[in-house]
Automatic annotation (TrEMBL):
<feature type="region of interest" description="Disordered">
    <location>
        <begin position="1"/>
        <end position="115"/>
    </location>
</feature>
<feature type="transmembrane region" description="Helical">
    <location>
        <begin position="170"/>
        <end position="197"/>
    </location>
</feature>
<keyword id="KW-1133">Transmembrane helix</keyword>
<feature type="transmembrane region" description="Helical">
    <location>
        <begin position="140"/>
        <end position="158"/>
    </location>
</feature>
<keyword id="KW-0812">Transmembrane</keyword>
<feature type="compositionally biased region" description="Low complexity">
    <location>
        <begin position="9"/>
        <end position="36"/>
    </location>
</feature>
<dbReference type="Pfam" id="PF09685">
    <property type="entry name" value="MamF_MmsF"/>
</dbReference>
<feature type="transmembrane region" description="Helical">
    <location>
        <begin position="203"/>
        <end position="224"/>
    </location>
</feature>
<dbReference type="InterPro" id="IPR019109">
    <property type="entry name" value="MamF_MmsF"/>
</dbReference>
<feature type="compositionally biased region" description="Low complexity">
    <location>
        <begin position="59"/>
        <end position="96"/>
    </location>
</feature>
<protein>
    <recommendedName>
        <fullName>DUF4870 domain-containing protein</fullName>
    </recommendedName>
</protein>
<keyword id="KW-0472">Membrane</keyword>
Amino acid sequence: MSQTPQSHDPFGTDPGTPGTPGAPQPQQGAPSSDPSLHPHDPYAYDADATRTNPLDIDAVPAQQPAAGGQDQYAAAGPAPYAAPAQQAPLGAAPTAEGESVPPAGTPGVYEGPLTGQAVSRSDSRLWATIAQAAVAVGHVISWGFLGWVGPLVVYLMYKDRDRFVRFHSAEALNGAIAVFAAQVVLTIVITIVAVFTLGIGTILYPLVGLPALLQLVFSIIGAIKANQGEYWSYPFNLRLVK
């Protein structure tokens, strides 16, 4: 007599129900072929053995370099920042390489164009210094009457070639012209005084060299400033030449 298993019998022998006696049990340690049974298992794979591990670096396709051997992302990256070129003011003339810019409001600076061949920065400082020092030499050897010769020569040589040399030579030349004019006036005045005082006024003749002595100090300071590459104007000057 055969016994029919009951559907609600806890001791039924239905072979198709997992967990019941006689039913095939999953092997221990063997992965299941159904990924839905392991929704949180990163190592679950399907029956075709296709890996679905999102952490597996082998599953991520390697980036191929772009044509020419360069990485496409590097080639498409942003260009390095380049500072905009400084534009010279409208109408400004070119200056020598590395030449310092005169401070705003500096008197006696020539702002027109330069047509001659530019000189190097070292030569610019050298000739600007010579122009200032030549005034001191001229004042010493001629008691102030020939201080204009040296800066005039430098001015004529470099007035169209370098703005820095032109400034210092013109400043020294204007100062020497002012000294010469002042000495002529003083000489005439003192001579008139000496005539009217019956020669007593001759004791005032040493004052004729006072303007030259004053510019001698200015020219020494100007030579130092020129050697340092700086624009420096005399405290007072005629500035007939620019």
